[in-house]
Specification:
Elements lengths: L7 H8 L25 E9 L3 E11 L7 E16 L2 E18 L6 E17 L13 E17 L15 E2 L2 E2 L15 E14 L8 E16 L8 E11 L9 E14 L5 E14 L21 E3 L13 E3 L1 E13 L14 E16 L11 E12 L2 E10 L2 E8 L6
Antiparallel strand pairs: 1-2, 2-3, 3-4, 4-5, 5-6, 6-9, 7-8, 9-10, 10-11, 11-12, 12-13, 13-16, 14-15, 16-17, 17-18, 18-19, 19-20
Length: 429
């Protein structure tokens, strides 16, 4: 494990044995689910990573809070002390903080408007920042810094009264043994006539304090995202056919404590094909994804401040647990980005944990995945994006645990190999 982004791992480690939850930017899974309960789950956990050291924490989780489709989680965590350098002096610091998340609450007096909120307050003893993340940058040109990373995000989403969203805006659907059995959608069909379509507004706020970089003591951003999303798959937790696309525009207006204004327009398209199975598989799927984006505000000022570029954790970035998994988190960033990937997903007929008392959680299936990725960042949005692209290949072992896909991805690229432990399929982000 070698990533920090949004302090996801402690939360996800606790989710391996629990119920419905999130994933970074796509926390709003409305098209699954099961029979909801109102039992609290209290779960201790431990983990280790390059940025946190050995750490542990305690989570409380609950599904069906107030409404059948909602989920809630809160977690606190702390790590062992590590030696870090601050202002030229050696000091002791430890990873610590807390996270909360509440999703998919249908607002009063509305039929199809949903609200989600999640936030983090944390301190990391060691974090990597690739401030020059251009396509030809050196992997050793990295800042290692301790500091705080805090964020608070909210989302308001309106399910349009068309397609499957007309009669079932909550997207509730029966799932048996890890496969969808409801008939709300067969996957595919005419855009906006079938499938679920939503529009939404997200607020975002994040600030990172960099103890080691005097010229950039903190980096704050806040603003709004506007998106339209269309899901025409058979089962958004693990699609086997159909398509999904989203257009999103993010804007930091430079207000409040924002370091600088910036914007970013992005488009994502996913396509899924159901393939013939083998004697030892239950489901075979070819999953394809394309993502591209551009920052209109970015200029070529050599100084980061005043260039109106997104922070390294926003905008046109590659590397990490979703896109270009063979590279460090947020390894590449620039004004424009193009990324494409293909995954061959096979759910095995063999499941040693099905019905076993040895595992305190329901494991519906195991999935073996082979993937390949290509991508590039560039300072212009033109055909040069398709030249000199980075690439990686990898293998993944995934399982559906309490109706949440949990994955271990190993990717290998030009700069070595990385392993990521994460929840949700990577195309969901």
């Amino acid at each position: 494990m070698n990533y920090k982004d949004h302090m996801l791992f402690p939360l996800f480690a606790s989710m391996l044995l629990t119920s419905h939850l999130l994933c970074a930017d796509t926390l709003y899974d409305q098209n699954i689910t099961k029979t909801k309960t109102k039992d609290w789950t209290v779960l201790p956990y431990a983990f280790s990573s390059d940025t946190t050291g050995l750490a542990g924490g305690l989570s409380i989780l609950m599904s069906g809070v107030f409404q059948p489709q909602t989920s809630f989680v809160a977690t606190v965590f702390r790590g062992e002390s590590q030696e870090v350098i601050i202002d030229g002096e050696q000091r002791e610091r430890s990873f610590k903080g807390g996270f909360f998340y509440f999703s998919d609450y249908k607002l009063p007096y509305t039929d199809r408007t949903f609200f989600s909120v999640y936030g983090l307050k944390s301190y990391f003893p060691k974090s990597k920042y690739y401030l020059d993340g251009s396509n030809n940058s050196n992997k050793n040109d990295v800042f290692l810094s301790s500091g705080e990373s805090n964020f608070l995000n909210m989302k308001f989403e309106y399910i349009l009264p068309i397609g499957s969203g007309l009669e079932n805006p909550q997207g509730l659907c029966q799932v048996e043994n890890g496969f969808v059995v409801c008939k709300r959608s067969k996957g595919g069909g005419k855009p906006f006539v079938t499938g679920q379509t939503s529009i939404g507004i997200k607020t975002f706020y994040q600030t990172d304090t960099l103890d080691h970089i005097k010229d950039l003591p903190d980096w704050s951003t806040n603003g709004l995202r506007f998106h339209i999303t269309h899901d025409n798959t058979d089962f958004d937790t693990n699609p086997s056919r159909g398509y999904h696309f989203q257009m999103q525009y993010s804007k930091d207006f430079g207000k409040g404590d924002s370091t600088q204004s910036w914007d970013f327009l992005e488009f994502k398209y996913n396509q899924y094909y159901s393939l013939d199975t083998f004697s030892f598989t239950k489901q075979n799927v070819l999953a394809l994804s394309l993502w591209t984006g551009y920052s209109f505000s970015w200029n070529d000022n050599e100084n980061i401040i005043g260039s109106h570029r997104p922070p390294v954790w926003e905008g046109a970035r590659l590397g990490g647990f979703n896109r270009m998994r063979g590279y460090d988190n947020n390894r590449f960033s620039d004004k424009a980005v193009f990324y494409a990937t293909a995954e061959y997903r096979a759910i095995l007929d063999y499941n040693p944990f099905k019905g076993s008392d040895l595992v305190p959680a329901k494991v519906d299936w195991f999935q073996v995945v082979a993937f390949a990725e290509v991508g590039r960042v560039h300072n212009h949005y033109n055909f040069d994006l398709l030249n000199d692209m980075k690439y990686d290949v990898g293998l993944s072992l995934r399982a559906l645990v309490e109706e949440i896909p949990v994955r271990i991805d190993v990717g290998y690229g030009e700069e070595g190999a990385n392993m990521w432990v994460m929840v949700q399929q990577p195309f969901d982000f």
